[in-house]
Amino acid sequence: METEPLHKNARDALIYDLLGDVGKLHDQIKALPEALKESIAPTLGAVTLATKEAHATIVQLGKAEKAAFGSFTAQEKVALRDSLKAALREEAGAALADVARDLSSSARLHEEAAKAERRQRWQWLAVALAVGLLCGALGLYGSHLLYGQQQAEQAAFGRAVMATWGDLDAKAKERIQEARRNTP
């Protein structure tokens, strides 16, 4: 029974110790914004000051460059303009020559491709003509064979009818005559 109160006392001691640590941590967190302000403020001030100085220097150098450019004499300005025009003409001429060469080579390639296409088209037309002629010849030969065979069969049938015509009755003769009239 004595162990139980001891356990409670140790546990209570640990809880009190933990609450004390949490309190210290809370105090440190509260002090953190002020510490950040103290450590960052000088750095931010230095950066702001350096930025203002850099801006002033840039503006001053721009004014000096503008003044130097403005102090060209009229003759120097004309000479500069003429040299710029000449340089632009040379560059433009070189660029146009490159474009003309590219266009010429692409036109030549296109013409060669078109010739190859025409050549190939004529080859296909020749093959199609040959196939058409072959099919036409085969069709004529087949119809000649078929027509010739039908004609021979019809002649044999006609001879058979003629041979037995006298033996047929009137009704059979009438049916044969009717079939003959209806045949194209």
Set out the fold topology.
Blueprint: H1 3-70, H2 74-164, H3 170-182
In short:
With 184 residues, the protein is an all-alpha fold.
Structure report:
The structure is a single chain. This protein is about 95% helix and about 0% strand. By secondary structure, it is mainly alpha-helical. The termini are far apart.
Number of helices, counting only DSSP H or I runs of 4 residues or more: 3
Instruction: Tell me the strand percentage band.
Output: under 5%
**Contiguous uncertain segments of 5+ residues:** none
Order of helices and strands: HHH
Largest sheet properties = none
Tell me the Rg in angstroms. 57 Å
Supply the helix-strand structural class. mainly alpha
- Please state the overall shape, judged from the principal axes of the Cα atoms: elongated
Mean pLDDT: 79
The residue fraction in helices comes out at: over 70%
Task: State the separation between the terminal residues, measured CA to CA.
Answer: 132 Å
Q: What is the total tally of β strands?
A: 0
